[in-house]
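Progress note, sequence design subtask.
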């Protein structure tokens, strides 16, 4: 076992350092995991580029990262069902289990949530971009030999998409529109197809992302930068889509899609941008259901099972794998939607 472990620590916008980081002692019912891969998420990019998002700001050095997979190095004395050498994807979500929302099964709304790599609370919750981490057994989900470490680290964003699809209700035979095809939008396409969507149309402003959307199962794509009225054909007779997944966080994308959604259509807002102005008259007149989708809980186990069984393929979304020591290049690539979707950091 390595004595000195390294981690990626954000100090200020653009100031990301490799630092020696001490691993917590292993508890009786915990697992010590050697992290192998970590995916760079949009929130990691926000911390790196802007020092946070909205009212959430870095106030102290914080280890980034929450999309990771690795191999178990040691198990606590009371642990059953896990053994050293087994590969796992790690859920970054650690709800308290005892607040009123946890007790209602709404763990994603936990009042005392500790979510890896989050500056939402102070002291900040340290993240998982480190070579070694001690986790609770409920966070660890075994990976099949057929699933790579990189794919395993995709279980977390896949969980976000699965949660959004569950928020939409039954998609069996439905017509679905996805606006914004970054990693989450692309994973929403995968999840919607798995859930039985009959026809999926995706929009974005970039050719690279739309190519990936087609690769993961969209039936057709519209480049709204080149074709601003590309959704016009879907607006006939009060609109044709049953469900809209809005994954761009862009007000224009949301409002532009409203005409293409049929009356009593369901709109699931996934993307986080600034505050938006909504055309309330349209929501009223067309009787839309507007639903938010925030994080996930039990969907993490579902995501790993789908990956393990080969029922979803996230490989087309992995653009590059770089060493954690090359973080500046990795983060620059992850921010460039013209050539990258998901960039994975290797912690070996």
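Output:
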């Amino acid at each position: 076992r390595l004595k000195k472990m390294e981690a990626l620590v954000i100090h200020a916008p653009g100031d990301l350092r490799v630092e020696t980081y001490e691993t917590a002692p292993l508890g009786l019912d915990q697992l010590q995991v050697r992290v192998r891969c970590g995916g760079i998420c949009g929130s990691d990019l926000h911390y790196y580029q802007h020092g946070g998002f909205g009212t959430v700001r870095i106030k102290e050095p914080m280890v980034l990262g929450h999309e990771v997979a690795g191999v178990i190095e040691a198990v606590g004395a009371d642990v059953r069902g896990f053994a050293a050498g087994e590969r796992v994807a790690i859920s970054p979500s650690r709800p308290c289990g005892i607040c009123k929302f946890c007790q209602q099964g709404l763990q994603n709304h936990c009042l005392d949530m500790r979510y890896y790599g989050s500056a939402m609370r102070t002291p900040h919750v340290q993240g998982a971009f480190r070579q070694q981490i001690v986790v609770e057994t409920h966070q660890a989900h075994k990976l099949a030999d057929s699933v790579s470490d990189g794919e395993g680290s995709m279980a977390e964003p896949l969980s976000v998409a699965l949660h959004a699809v569950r928020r939409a209700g039954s998609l069996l035979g439905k017509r679905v529109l996805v606006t914004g095809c970054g990693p989450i939008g692309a994973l929403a396409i995968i999840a919607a197809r798995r859930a039985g969507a009959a026809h999926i149309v995706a929009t974005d402003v970039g050719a690279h992302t739309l190519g990936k959307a087609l690769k993961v199962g969209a039936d057709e794509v519209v480049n709204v930068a080149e074709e601003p009225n590309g959704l016009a054909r879907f607006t006939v007779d009060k609109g044709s889509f049953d469900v809209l997944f809005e994954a761009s966080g862009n007000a224009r994308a949301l409002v532009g899609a409203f005409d293409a959604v049929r009356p009593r259509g369901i709109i699931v807002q996934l993307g986080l941008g600034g505050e938006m102005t909504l055309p309330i008259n349209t929501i009223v007149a067309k009787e839309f259901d507007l639903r938010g989708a925030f994080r996930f809980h039990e969907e993490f186990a579902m995501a790993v099972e789908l990956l393990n069984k080969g029922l979803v393929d996230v490989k087309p979304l992995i653009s590059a794998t770089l060493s954690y020591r090359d973080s500046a290049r990795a983060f620059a690539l992850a921010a460039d939607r013209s050539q990258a979707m998901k960039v994975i950091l290797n912690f070996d």
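The longest strand covers residues 30-39. Work on this subtask will continue into the next period as scheduled.
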